[in-house]
Amino acid sequence: MNQSIKRKSIRGIMFILLIILVGAKSYIAKAQSVHNYTYYGYGLSLSVPQQTLSSNISQLNGLKVNLVGYNLGGMIANKYGKLKANIGSYYSGSSTPYEIDVLRGSISGHIYMLRLSKVKAHLFEPYAVLGMSQQVSKFYGNYLSNDPQNVSSSTSQPLLGKVNSTRMNVGAGVELQLENDFQKFIHVFAEVTYGAPLSSSASNSSFSQTKVMNAITFNLGVNFGIVKISR
Hints:
By secondary structure, the chain is mainly β.
């Protein structure tokens, strides 16, 4: 994908996120509640990404990669949705034959589906997710070596290359929403997202044809924050 298409895709996603926030703000004006409020908070979650690789390297082509890690992030939100930014670090599990580390940054818009027609608090709040992420995958191993003796005797896992990928993410989740009398909240959530690839680049020619496909991520975590109320 050339740079022009990549820039247009990124601008399109950011425009959609802007529409989400503007739409949420317009709904506030129609709300029956006498209060308007805004969340400011941060979150921590356990993350289990699963993805498939497409590559001209035989050891990687079609490889299903299971990762585990964590996300840290911040958010700003209102009654109808939120804008969330995360950074995450993940490591390949024992079921993956080659060591792969992943660093991912993302921004996403969330809309509470049950609140679109009427603002009413629910203990469980389902929501839809739309966002964009940038991911760096680091590949370690000896499988690019042409010396069979070196492959079998080496105990270290050298870094072979990196693949950068940009994806559009869509998904859904549900929050268990808890608040106390001091306007501080705890939201426990579970969500799943699917990432469609937009662009990909590699750190060297060996990985130029290696791409991350069929990326699915499961997150289980908790959001903490403060509710600011305006009358």
